[in-house]
Specification:
The protein is an alpha/beta fold and 262 residues long. 42% of the residues lie in helices and 7% in strands. It has ten helices and four strands; from the N terminus they run ααβαβαβαβααααα. The chain has a four-stranded parallel sheet, sandwiched between helices. The longest helix is centred in the last third of the chain and has 23 residues, at 226-248. It is globular and about 50 Å long.
């Protein structure tokens, strides 16, 4: 039986690497970069699963790993989803706990010789991840948060996504498209008729999502397609190259690795 026949399906959330795979990949690069998908377990309307953000983060991370020589990690599946607490099924941990988990993972990776870590965030409510990266960078540790809004904007343009990042807040065109491409078997009927727009969400942190939507959807899932999902992931994998260059560079200047663009 061939290696390909014995490996889990490509859509598995858990990487199938052995320790020798990691050793061999590390021998071919000057500095190893690990990729950690960070998702959530929260409501995504009646048609997307609670694990949507984790599935999206893993889909991005898998696409990145298919293009770049990174050490792909299993996902963090529960995070900071407190704004969705009004819906059954949502589970959260505190920002303090998530911060500690990421720090512990980064410390463990460095002990094993992997000193650069990219957090692939699938949930907008994980604000603390930005603090983790800032604090790590201040300690001269190599860490990054991906995708940045600019990476998403480029991906939206390349994929022909019609909804803006403001409008496409939750269970909308982007997430529906990525799951239609990566996990179509997990989408329930109803996304074609569930569009709901609420662009003014200035009190979201105080009132939660339930103040702005009854269904849990804010966006236009009816515009989603598998082809858009495929193009979104391809664009994000392309954008990731700049992060690899930055984290593996001997220098410390962003300008040195991004052609002077910040």
């Amino acid at each position: 039986m061939s290696d390909a026949q014995t490996r889990p399906a490509a859509h598995s959330l858990v990487p199938a690497d052995t320790t020798e795979d990691v050793r061999a990949r590390g021998a071919g690069v000057s500095r190893q970069v690990a990729v950690l998908p960070v998702g959530s377990f929260e409501q995504h309307g009646a048609f997307l699963p609670l694990a949507t953000d984790t599935l999206v983060a893993c889909a991005i991370a898998r696409e990145v790993a298919a293009v770049h020589p990174v050490h792909l990690l299993p996902p963090v599946t529960i995070s900071c989803s407190h704004e969705h607490a009004a819906w059954p099924g949502t589970v959260s941990i505190s920002s303090v706990t998530l911060h500690a988990v990421i720090r512990d993972i980064a410390d463990s990776l460095r002990r094993s010789g992997v000193d650069a870590l990219v957090l692939v965030n699938g949930h907008g409510g994980n604000y603390v991840l930005g603090n983790v990266v800032q604090e790590s960078s201040a300690r001269a540790e190599r860490m990054a948060l991906f995708p940045a809004p600019e990476d998403w904007e480029t991906a939206l343009e390349r994929a022909g996504v019609e909804t803006s990042l403001l409008t496409d807040m939750h269970a909308g065109e982007i997430e529906t498209s990525i799951l239609l491409h990566a996990h179509p078997e997990l989408i329930r009927p109803g996304y074609e008729t569930s569009d709901f727009v609420a662009d003014d969400r200035r009190h979201l942190l105080t009132l939660g999502m339930s103040a702005y939507t009854d269904s849990g959807v804010i966006g236009r899932p009816s515009l989603g397609s598998a082809e858009k999902g495929k193009r979104l992931l391809e664009s994000l994998a392309d954008s990731f190259g700049a992060y690899v260059s930055l984290l593996t560079s001997a220098g410390d200047s962003v300008a040195d690795t991004t052609d002077g663009r910040k």
